[in-house]
Design a protein that fits this description.
The complex is a heterodimer of chains A (about 200) and B (about 325). With about 200 residues, chain A is an all-alpha fold. In chain A, about 80% of the residues lie in helices and about 0% in strands. The chains are: A mainly alpha (about 200), B alpha+beta (about 325).
Amino acid sequence: MIRTLSVRTLDRAKILLFMAGLYPLARWLWLGMQNDLTANPVEFLSRSSGTWTLVCLLVTLSVSPLRQWLNQPALLRWRRMCGLFTFFYASLHALAWAWWDQGLDWAPMLADVWKRPFIMVGMAAFLTMSLLAVTSTHGWMRRLGRRWQYLHRLIYAIALLALLHYYWHKAGKSDFTTVTIYAAVMAVLLGWRLLRFNKRRTR
Amino acid sequence: MPNYRAPQIHSSEITPEHVWQSRRDWIKVAGASLLTGAAGTWPSIGGAASLASLEAVTSKQFFTMEPRTPEKDASSYNNFYEFGTDKGDPVKYAHTLQTSPWKVRIEGEVVAPKTVDLDDIRKLAPLEERTYRMRCVEGWSMVIPWIGFSLSELLKQVQPTGNAKYVEFITDVQPKNMPGLSSRSIQWPYNEGLRLDEAMHPLTMLVMGMYGKVLPNQNGAPVRLMVPWKYGFKSAKSIVAIRLTEKQPLSSWMKAIPSEYGFYSNVNPEVAHPRWSQATERRIGEDGLFAPKRKTLMFNGYGNEVASLYTGMDLRKNY
């Protein structure tokens, strides 16, 4: 087992995490310059931003289990940045839909959210995530105290909504391979919380 | 010396150029990797540049002044689920499709059923280059110069009987060569159908090539259908059977999701797909990232030619 890293080490190494978080964006810019965004760049970028949102979400959810499994409590310092990157890519994903697909037309957008369950679920996840992004600061942690913990547990609801959004998107082609993989990872990460909850209850 | 007579080589025995080329590409790559010893970049096997050219007369009747979709886009962005459900899968995996020898059975409610090969089909009528719009149900479209002729030329040969009301098209199934068959999205083989008058319409095209060359595998080689006023999935690829029937055939997409896909599938901006609007579309290769989507035209802009087929029909009910 490697030695337990200090809070100072992880704070200093945060710049590396930041650069890693920018990788998806950098890759899109690189592909764009190579004219390699496929024949339908709008579709590619919309879907890619969705995929990376889901990946960042799972990375965020894995911080707490990894703290325990790798015995690195200081990893907690990285959790907010992971969450905010998730929100960053979710915002790009939502913007791609609102702008490229809907032409920033409010009436059709509202109609779409209402008529299409998979959009409604995605929008619900995004709006909830926005709330968490806004209250991610130290100021809000102080203001809300204990309630901050309860509010930010909404990430579990967001995770399930995001998975449902992805499942419904793939359902049209009965293409469930990738959905199953994401669901399996999520099951492990959320299952760890259930186990911890049970342990604390029976203490 | 007596007059030399060259052996008669049937055109179906000729190694397709892309196979000939791909064998050379493999030899080159094998040689290169022996020399470099590293996993370098593999040259594209069977790329568009190595397809046999197909001579055709540019149609004076069927054309459009709209800019053509770049050939690279038309041959690398495809829905051909037999090779995978991603748009980029067919260009990657369809090189395994066996397109020679190829036979098409024309059967069912006909006086003279027959089985034809590619040479027979090419001799039926002069090959024309027709530039058609193609609108996918997903909301994107292309403008492609197809090479072929009206399907009616083939159907006339077999003489449909008085009972023939519909035409069914069956795509080939090659279990060893089609990795996408394990997908449960479609009940294989892929099949589609048209009403007899739609199939006999001059616009309906039996296609053997595009962009001046034979069809790339990923575009439905060696012979496919093109019905430009309907959503793209109606234009079946890699056809091995054409069946004239009395009853309306149940197409693959009707079987897969009956609430979303009907028999007619005419391009219609006023009838939304249950999961998205059909009022607009994105023209591949032309509409950039920041260009607004363009309005979809009724019958994909072929209303003058085909609207009369549907007078009095409720196109919302018959979607």
